[in-house]
Amino acid sequence: MEMRVEVTSRETMKPSSPTPHGLKTFNLCLLDQMTRMYYASVVFFYPSDPTRDLPVKIDHISCTLKKSLAEALTRFYPLSGRLSKNNLYIDCNDAGVLYVEARVDCSLSEFAKKPEIRLLDKFLPLHGVSTGPEEEAFLFGIQVNVLSCGGIVIGTSSSHKIMDATTFIAFFRTWTAIATGRPDQAMQADCMAASTLFPSSHTMPNNAGLWHGNPFTKPGKSSLRRFVFDSAALSRLKLDARSEFVPNPTRIEALTGFIWKHAIRASRMLSGMQPPSAVVQSMNLRHRVEPPLPEQSIGNIAWRAFATYENTRPEVELRDLVESVRKSLAEINVDHVKKIRGDGAFEGISKWLEEAGRIYTKMRQECYTFVSWYRMGFYDVDFGWGRPGWVSVQNFGDDAFKNVVIMMDTPSGNGIEALIALEEQEMSILEQDQEFLASAKPQLSMVLQGRSKL
């Protein structure tokens, strides 16, 4: 499918009120400092109501989005700032965020028939790793795409330098609350929590680059596919994953183990060997500290837990993998965080990097990264014209990204979508794995849920 996107306007949006002088510096935390200046992107699809007048509607929507965005930025003012040259803080100078409007020469129903992942990039204002001087780069951008049918696709690009998924959702809850006339439900960002938990440093720990992931990337091309697991499939997987150690696995634990199992199987079939394997899982720390941190705390307040599997017997048992997943997550508790926070942050993070280096070296190319955005609230992003009919992460299927899985809700809320990136030959094996396909349905078309007021 070919799709032409024409940018009709591009501007910089600034907070509706200037940031007070005493709030001009947002100190980065150590995890922010170690995070690359790259954009994580989410795309929201809103179907249209064909009975409404398109030009009037779009003008009103544009005005509402801009006005409410400017007001939301006063509450999350670091997003309008710029990174300092020394990578220690954000200069909250109200330089602004990128706001783009565009026209798309296809309808949402046409796109939904075969939603090609590569086309998602066209809906986005910013892409990948920031080019040019980092201290001049936007920290947030939005692109409002108007389709020929009147449907709207909102593409967002957020710098992972200061925004994890929880920060993103907190900002959008605030923005949508303002846009829909509910200012009492808008949040004020907490700009102190992250740097208090993990104070910044003028020097980086050894092997800080390992925070970005496994340095041992598999050769070959990457293949990115989306699979849907409905409620019945997830219930079966939870039953199959039960064990004495994990009598009641969660949906995410069971699905993580299931995908990991079949990725291991594909890798072993291709290589003819039975090497050990590992999964690294990203997890929100805000509720794993005492006292808990508010959801609107800005920054990378997340940790990574390793689950390992070193059994070399030919058949991999789902329950064994789920036990490893549960154990790795349970170890990251309040007591663990006490050892790596505050004055102990630099040493604690350095020890994690040392352990990560050992695991990556041992597992080599058999490490998988799992990210769960399940039930985080992405389908609650309603600017006043209804909930999105579909939400997707960006295309991350270039050859540098392999062994990556992102899980999030289905539009109905009953199932889970998994976006999986594997080496292309391994993906081909996975797509023919009948045991895998008994639970996983390849997403060949998009079914938009809900009723829009557009």
From TrEMBL:
Matches recorded under Pfam families: Transferase
Entry keywords, A to Z: Acyltransferase, Transferase
Annotated GO MF terms: acyltransferase activity
InterPro entries attached to this UniProt entry: CAT-like_dom_sf (IPR023213)
Family in the record: Belongs to the plant acyltransferase family.
Name of the protein this chain belongs to: Uncharacterized protein
Organism encoding this protein: Eucalyptus grandis (Flooded gum)
